[in-house]
Design brief:
Structural class: alpha/beta
Number of helices: 34
Distance between the termini: 35 Å
């Protein structure tokens, strides 16, 4: 058998006509394997396998343009005409008539888009059966049970997919007959039982639709075709396309194929398999099968499939033929194959092959092995791994195999990984339980987190919030910590007063176990097991040694403390692109000093408080410089509004009321009232657009002075000890060059004071975070003062769209469902809008300062598509949380390879 497939040009078409239907069978095909745009992945594969001489049941493919016409409201009459011609050709080849005669032809009708979308669209089997044909099939096969089983399957599938009769109503009838007959397994149903089910199914169809189950095979076929087209727009398919960034407009092909029956006899069967293990990548035959079954039985869970290796004992000839065919298919396609097969009366048929889905662990191993085997090049190996798949090596994962999973809610996958632990509802309780060792693992459950929760988040294994988005406080902080987080799980009702989590009729209290999957956003009942992360995996180390020499973009990390910086270096960070100094102020030993500074009413008192914070900040920066050695460290000056460092107004009011009632003369009342007055004084209608960023430093220059001094004193100290610190001081929220000029002057004045006092100098740069549209529009002016730019795309997205990143989840699901947004703009950079501001900022900035260093430090720095955009517009680096570094490194390499490939194509 040869797999030197005949990749011939498609059949010639008229200048103005469209060929809608492509036949395959008898070793010939109208299409070929390169026509995925037209035939879909499955149709192209069937054509290719047919021309290779593989045992493929014949049939025809209705091309994707017919689906696009269906979505526009009208399918060309030419489609029906070509379908009839192809059906006649199929009937002639098989010596059968669709649903007619002593030996009726039956067909399957399946979807098949250009990109694999397993299980997302609909399938119908045994099409062509009717009340007459089922009797002919029973007589011809000499197996009435098989015939009636095939018919009841058709009615159920067709009723569900085409006629919109709820599947559960069919299942209710089916289970009722089983219970009445005291039968446990489906395969123990007799022909008489199945006849009873068929009669009840037909009554259900009549009741639900007002019509009898269609008996005309041609009408069945047309209706099934349209139903498959329609399933392109079902919710699960649309969600899958959004997650995998597949264009909604491409449509699906429909594949009509002669049925072969795995449920015909004890020498018949069906199965699915992979040429390599899709979980580990091991080069071993992998899959499952069932004898006397149809394909849906293998995946439905009704029966327990057997390992595919067991087939060798039952049908050794078929097993060896299957193994030989699939090995040749893998060699031909140069990738791991996912295949489906059916055995009918001892004869093997191949129903499908496609490039197999795989885990990140498997993707890396398969890429390494295939390069070693000479099947693919190193460059191809790098392109074979999806950047986000590398998460698998860095985070723990839930063990789900063999477990009964109850998904309580699905929120946003804010920070990848898995967490299984006992619930606590406050950060204080988390710290207390952790310190006492009461709980070995903790899941912190909150309505939303605040900066004051940081201590509890640090000891928790995972965080669940009912509110907030992908760039909420919980999301950003947990990604930096490398902890699992599910945010914005709106179905979860968190009652912090009662210490209860209510969801799906369950009530969870403190100490109860739940499991979180931060990679998918699932909240799961109970206590699952986890698999540990594998960052030192030899396969990963080798793979990344191929990746790094290819990329042009440098990859930095967002890290605020030495521990995060150390982790970042382990994952390959080439510097720190964002150190958020505000996170340092929330530690227990300094929050009071910070509050004292905020409460101060005079500059003198503020400076006194800042003086106490100075050595603490200096120590923080010294640790970062030591960890990062000669790598660049970008430190952002204080950015958030001051009220974030104070208790919430509502909490203060409750405390005051309780004290007034219980201890009206307590001296603490005065302090609380003073604090409340300052909180109310600092209250802003829109704090994210109020007194924050550079506006703080301009209003209270002593804050900028203290931070600049702490940074530069730490850098000088590091240099004196033999280090080589590379300092980049970043001014946040600049909107005008005058703001930049004001803050730069303070930093440079302090620098000269420090250098003079210490008798030593360090090289440093002063730059800005471009996070306001006006900053991008006037970047040429700002570059007169700024020595580097870093785009803060979280705030830039927020201020460009006019959308609060913390509140977007209130309407984002609706926007995604309606297709208004293709992606969450805070997760993937909006290249058409926000991206154009970034591009403009780059061009304008470099027009003033040609060698301007430019990076990005928003959450988009770890998103593969956003990284590729950054490569394209000429940024120097991207910065992301430590646990997204591998993803960013691989995405940057793939961007360079795609650019190289484009140059090759352009030169041809």
């Amino acid at each position: 058998m040869s797999l030197a497939v005949l990749d011939e040009a498609p059949a010639k078409q008229g200048k103005t006509s469209t060929k809608y239907v492509y036949f395959f069978g008898g070793g010939k095909a109208d299409g070929n394997g390169k026509m995925k745009d037209v035939l879909g992945g499955k149709g192209a594969g069937l054509a290719e396998m047919t021309m290779a001489g593989l045992p493929v049941p014949p049939g025809f493919t209705i091309q994707t343009e017919a689906c696009r016409e269906y979505m526009r409201g009208k399918v060309s009459a030419q489609v029906d005409k070509e379908m009839k011609a192809a059906l006649e050709q199929l009937e002639q080849m098989q010596g059968q008539k669709l649903g007619a005669g002593d030996n009726p032809l039956l067909v399957s009708v399946r979807s098949g888009a250009k990109f694999s979308m397993p299980g997302m669209m609909d399938t119908i089997l045994n099409l062509g059966l009717n009340d007459v044909a089922v009797e002919a099939l029973a007589k011809r096969s000499n197996n009435p049970r098989f015939a009636y089983d095939s018919y009841r399957r058709l009615i159920q599938m067709f009723g569900d997919v085409v006629l919109d009769v709820p599947k559960k109503k069919f299942e209710h009838i089916f289970d009722g007959v089983k219970q009445a007959a005291k039968i446990k397994f489906d395969y123990d149903l007799t022909a008489a039982h199945l006849q009873k089910i068929i009669e009840e199914y037909k009554k259900l169809v009549k009741k639900e639709t007002g019509n009898d189950f269609p008996q005309n095979p041609w009408e069945q076929l047309k209706a099934a075709r349209d139903a498959v087209f329609s399933s392109w727009q079902n919710e699960r398919a649309k969600t899958y396309r959004r997650i995998n960034r597949i264009d909604d407009a491409i449509g699906t092909a429909v594949n009509v194929q002669a049925m072969v029956f795995g449920n015909l006899s004890e020498t018949s069967g069906t199965g699915v398999g992979f040429t390599r293990n899709p979980a580990t990548g091991e080069h071993a035959f992998f899959g499952e099968y069932l004898m006397n079954a149809q394909g849906e039985d293998v995946v439905s869970g009704v029966r327990t499939p057997l390992p595919i290796t067991e087939l060798e004992k039952v049908m050794p000839k078929c097993f060896q033929e299957l193994k030989d065919i699939t090995a040749k298919m893998e060699k031909h396609y140069r990738d791991m194959q996912d295949f489906e097969f059916t055995i009918q009366d001892g004869k093997l048929y191949m129903l499908q092959t496609r490039n197999g889905k795989r885990t990140g662990l498997a993707a890396v191993r398969v890429a390494l092995d295939m390069v070693k085997e000479g099947l693919i090049t190193k460059e191809e190996g790098i392109q074979r791994v999806e950047p986000n798949q590398l998460y698998d090596f860095l985070v723990p994962r839930l063990v789900e195999k063999g477990e009964k999973i109850e998904v309580l809610a699905t929120g946003l996958p804010a920070s990848p990984g898995a967490a299984v632990g006992q619930i606590v509802f406050t950060a204080e309780e988390a710290v207390k339980r952790h310190a006492k060792g009461d709980y070995k693992s903790i899941v912190l459950v909150r309505g939303e987190t605040t900066p004051e929760d940081i201590a509890g988040m640090e000891v928790a294994d995972g965080i669940l919030t009912s509110r907030g988005g992908m760039t909420s406080h919980a999301a950003v902080v947990t990604r930096g910590m490398g902890k699992c987080c599910v945010a914005g799980a709106g179905d979860c009702v968190v009652d912090e007063a009662k210490k209860e989590l209510r969801v799906k009729g369950h009530v969870y209290r403190e100490g109860d176990y739940i499991s979180l999957d931060g990679t998918t956003g699932r909240v799961i009942a109970g206590r699952l097991k986890t698999l540990d992360a594998q960052p030192d995996d030899p396969d990963l180390v080798k793979f990344m040694s191929w990746v790094d020499p290819i990329r042009r973009l440098n990859i930095r990390a967002n890290a605020d403390i030495p521990r995060d910086a150390k982790m970042a270096r382990q994952f390959g960070a080439e510097g720190i692109g964002l150190c958020r100094t505000e996170h340092m102020f929330f530690a227990e030993d300094r929050i009071e000093y910070m509050r004292t500074m905020i409460l101060a009413t005079t500059e003198k008192d503020r400076r006194a408080a800042l003086k106490k914070l100075l050595p603490m900040q200096r120590s923080d920066f010294a640790g970062l410089f030591k960890t990062m050695e000669a790598l660049p460290v970008t430190i952002r000056l204080l950015d958030p509004p001051l009220h974030e460092f104070l208790p919430k107004r509502e909490d203060l009011l409750v405390q005051i009321a309780r004290l007034e009632e219980s201890k009206p003369r307590s001296p603490k009342l005065k302090d609380l009232r003073t604090l409340l007055a300052r909180v109310e004084e600092l209250h802003e209608q829109n704090p994210m657009l109020g007194l924050r960023g550079c506006r703080l430093g301009i209003t209270f220059p002593e804050i900028t002075e203290m931070q600049a001094r702490a940074i530069l004193e730490a850098a000088v100290a590091a240099k004196v000890k033999g280090g080589d610190p590379h300092v980049e001081i970043m001014i946040p929220l600049i909107g005008t060059v005058e703001e930049m000029r004001n803050q730069t002057a303070i930093v440079r004045r302090v620098a000269e004071e420090v250098f003079k006092e210490k008798g030593s100098k360090v090289d440093y740069m002063v730059g800005t975070m471009i996070e306001l549209p006006r900053a991008a529009l006037t970047a040429d002016q700002i570059a007169e003062e700024a020595e580097f730019f870093s785009f803060g795309t979280n705030d830039l997205t927020q201020t460009t769209y006019g959308i609060s990143r913390d509140d977007i989840n209130n309407f984002l699901p609706t926007y995604l469902k309606l297709g208004i947004f293709k992606q969450d703009p805070f997760a993937t950079l909006d290249q058409a809008g926000v991206g154009q501001l970034v591009k403009m900022g780059v061009e304008k900035g470099r027009a003033t300062r040609p060698k301007l260093k430019i990076g990005i430090c928003g959450e988009h720095g770890g998103d593969p598509e956003s990284v590729k955009f950054c490569h394209k517009i000429g940024l120097n680096y991207v910065s992301c949380s430590p646990f997204r570094l591998l993803t960013a490194r691989l995405a940057a390499a793939q961007a360079a390879l795609e650019e190289k490939l484009g140059e090759r194509e352009g030169s041809k």
